[in-house]
Amino acid sequence: MSEARASVVSDDGMRPSPGGELQMDVALGLEGLRKTFGEKVAVERVDLAVPAGSFFGLVGPNGAGKTTTLSMATGLLRPDAGRVTVRGTDLWADPVTAKSLLGVLPDGVRLFDRLTGLQLVVHAGMLHRLPRTTARERAEALLRALDLEADANTFVADYSAGMTKKIALACALVHAPRLLVLDEPFEAVDPVSAASIRAILADYVGTGGTVVVSSHVMDLVERMCDHVAVLAAGRVLAAGTVDEVRGGASLEDRFVELVGGRRSGEGLEWLHSS
User: Fold this and answer.
1) Domain for residue 164, yes or no?
2) What does the longest C-alpha to C-alpha distance in the chain come to?
3) Which of 26, 42, 39, 129 is CA-nearest to residue 77?
4) What is the span of the domain harbouring residue 68?
5) What is the pTM of this model?
6) Which of 19, 122, 202, 219 has the fewest CB atoms within 10 Å, counting from its CB?
7) CATH number at residue 248
8) What is the crossing angle of helices 161-173 and 132-145, to 10°?
9) What pLDDT score was predicted for residue 8?
10) Taking the mean position of all CA atoms in its chain, how far away is CA 267?
11) Is residue 65 a part of any domain in this protein?
12) Could you give the C-alpha distances from 185 to 166, 178, 195, in angstroms and in order?
């Protein structure tokens, strides 16, 4: 009689190897990613390993390469060099399998905005091969959770910026992906809705999902994420748990120290009140 054995993953995303030592269970792996636009190097040899079950923040100044990196990580942009794996599946070698595991909220998301909110989320679910009835049930539940139920039958073209962000998040969630990659998910979202989204994402991670989120708000990342990477000029300057990266300081202070570029108010004395 054979004995069934389960692979055990600990809270920090580690699992035992056949030899007994712990090794990281990687939800998203980026290896040597590089992207140029003409003579401009947008991303230069980025290596990152996002642990399964983590809430991973990607932070950096404007122009750091965050959106380009996430676009390559989700199959929206082909890298000049490097490799992306989603739960061990090579994204570019087997894009159908890899993308079925992904939920993506890209920067500057374009939606079929002549559909109603409910129609759009149902459509997204059916694109992921959900039966129509299942897609509708999930869409209705997501609209309730994101406080969009009253606008379920409103055309997305008539949504505000914050509502559009929330309906795009619902589309990313409807097929219950293993990994969520969200580019600035809280931008233009009101504080009450932001709190609801954070609660949904925390529950998702608590049940084994993995979230990668980019944000400019250091305090939010520090409170929400357990892992973080600092990106600047297309390179990873630091990566690890939030405590490891901040090194006893606040994440914002550590970020400024790593990235540099803080400017004083010298020359603006004319702004001072007399």
Assistant:
1) yes
2) 88
3) 42
4) 23-101+179-258
5) 0.86
6) 19
7) 3.40.50.300
8) 140
9) 38
10) 39
11) yes
12) 8, 18, 12
